[in-house]
Amino acid sequence: QVQLVEAGGGSVQPGGSLRLSCVASGNLFSDYNMGWFRQAPGHSRELVATMPRGGGVHYLDLVKGRFTMSGDTAKNTVFLQMNNLKPDDTAVYYCNANQGPQYNSWGQGTQVTVSA
């Protein structure tokens, strides 16, 4: 099993940047499909970026060109660099690790608020 702890959320003005981190423990994050999700009030949780075990990164169209997902195997940590943030990016952001339907792990979430 893998445990996930997110950090890095906060409040920024539109156009600002934040870098979220997700520290994995118990197992290597590289053994899992890793993803960043977000959930805004009154909305369902949506996939923002995913880094499958096989490699590559895929993004929600709304964040392409602004968000970058990466991983540091030495720190067993994945990151989400968020640039040019917009008010619609306001949400609780969650880190996820899965191995298909048989295993799914979530972090506790970190709040991101974008407002003038």
Secondary structure layout plus pairing:
Layout (H helix, E strand, L loop, with lengths): L2 E5 L2 E3 L5 E8 L7 E7 L6 E6 L6 E2 L7 E6 L4 E6 L8 E8 L5 E3 L3 E5 L2
Parallel strand pairs: 2-11
Antiparallel strand pairs: 1-3, 3-8, 4-5, 4-9, 5-6, 7-8, 9-10, 9-11
The helix/strand order is: EEEEEEEEEEE
Give the percentage of residues in beta strands.
over 45%
Number of helices: 0
**Straight-line N-to-C gap:** 40 Å
Helix fraction, binned, reads under 10%
Anisotropy-based shape: globular
Alpha carbon gyration radius = 13 Å
> What's the mean pLDDT score?
96
Number of strands: 11
**Which structural class fits the helix and strand makeup?**
mainly beta
Largest sheet: 7 strands, mixed
Spans of at least 5 consecutive residues with low confidence: none
Describe the protein:
With 116 residues, the chain is mainly beta. 0% of the residues lie in helices and 51% in strands. It has no helices and eleven strands. The protein has strands at residues 3-7, 10-12, 18-25, 33-39, 46-51, 58-59, 67-72, 77-82, 91-98, 104-106, 110-114. Strands 2, 4, 5, 6, 9, 10 and 11 form a seven-stranded mixed sheet that branches. Strands 1-3-8-7 form a four-stranded antiparallel sheet, with no helix packed on it. Strand 4 and strand 5 (46-51) form a beta hairpin. It is globular, with a radius of gyration of 13 Å. 29% of the residues are buried.
Short description:
With 116 residues, the chain is mostly beta strands.
